[in-house]
Amino acid sequence: MDKKPPLISVAIVEDDDDIRQSLAVLIDGTEGFMCANTYRECWEAIQGVTAETPDVVLMDIGLPGMSGIEGIRRIKDRLPDLDILVLTVHENDEIVFEALCAGACGYLVKETPPARILEAIREVKRGGSPMSTQIARMVTNSFQRKTMHPLTTREVEVLDTLCKGKSYKMIGESLFISEETVRRHLKNIYKKLEVHSKSEAVAKALKEKIV
Amino acid sequence: MDKKPPLISVAIVEDDDDIRQSLAVLIDGTEGFMCANTYRECWEAIQGVTAETPDVVLMDIGLPGMSGIEGIRRIKDRLPDLDILVLTVHENDEIVFEALCAGACGYLVKETPPARILEAIREVKRGGSPMSTQIARMVTNSFQRKTMHPLTTREVEVLDTLCKGKSYKMIGESLFISEETVRRHLKNIYKKLEVHSKSEAVAKALKEKIV
DNA sequence: CTATAATTGACCCGTTCGGGTTATTTTCCC
DNA sequence: GGGAAAATAACCCGAACGGGTCAATTATAG
Prior knowledge:
homodimer, Rossmann fold, 5-stranded parallel beta sheet, 10 helices
């Protein structure tokens, strides 16, 4: 008696008819997979997947009406544990990171061969986060500190201490310099970063990964 | 006449003699790979790779003397374009993210089968960032906003505006409430986050991904 | 329907900050 | 060894902030 592994059910959100149908055929035609449903746009998908609760959603980004990014956000709001895998032509930094922040757990570019798409879906099911080569590199690079900024070594130290929430006085004590010198450094930092307050400086430092 | 692809030269940093030699044998014994050198600890490795400039460094984390994390940092300081692939038993969040921040472009756990290690090295060479299943998921999850925090919806809005570097007055104008109410919200936010200044609140909000 | 949480608003007061100006010492590159 | 860049330090002043106390209205959950 054969013991069949449970099917991985996949929902597809893709506006291009050809691509959508090809994907559906690919998934339904492969042992171990089933296509739960397909959608042309996000609104339908949000309704649909809430009812169907597939294992994985294959999601395009450039969609008519609501963008895939917002779609991911909405679906994740309702079903935080549902895994959403992005499949798109967009390789732009902004979009990649927005998709991941919205809750995507993987990101494939559209030239990905069918076999790799299937493998990626399996990987998602196993608790992984498959990404195309260049996307993965963008992601790991995003962790690294920026070195291209106009600040001197000492200024970075001051800014780093500032980011720990300290006052001028406390920064001075930490770095063994007078409060007035801290003040001076901060003035220079503000000019260079084009900010006008501690909180703005901290926000910029953390967002731009200066510290 | 055969056209051989150039060999991928790999340096290994690993203190365990058995593992180090196994890896060296694996790499030298595989078509298309060569082991440039092996090191027991970071200091040697830093000197060595600076001279040899291999294509990829396979790096352990738990090393005697300087930790692999610091080793990655030092090597990257000297050779920012050298690709370093971590191969370790450590799956702890802290260590994974420290390694990536230090400059690792990939992260494999030690149970990774030899074939996958070789494939990962090829992927690094192609400009990718191979990661073990669970590591990749940790990484994508790290982009998502935390929902477990003690702040109310409105407080998050206020904090979000604060993170754009605005003053109380400007926050009030943005959210159509009086400056005094902003002040009140901030007081509650400070209590809940246990901070005592705008910059500390911004730092905490961004680091903890509350906004 | 009631009680609790959330959101809104106000005043006071001492501290800190942001921006302006000036100046000396140290470090490091050419 | 000379000059530029960086790091150090000081003073002033008005604006902004942090913390304290008090209070009203609106949602929301039980």
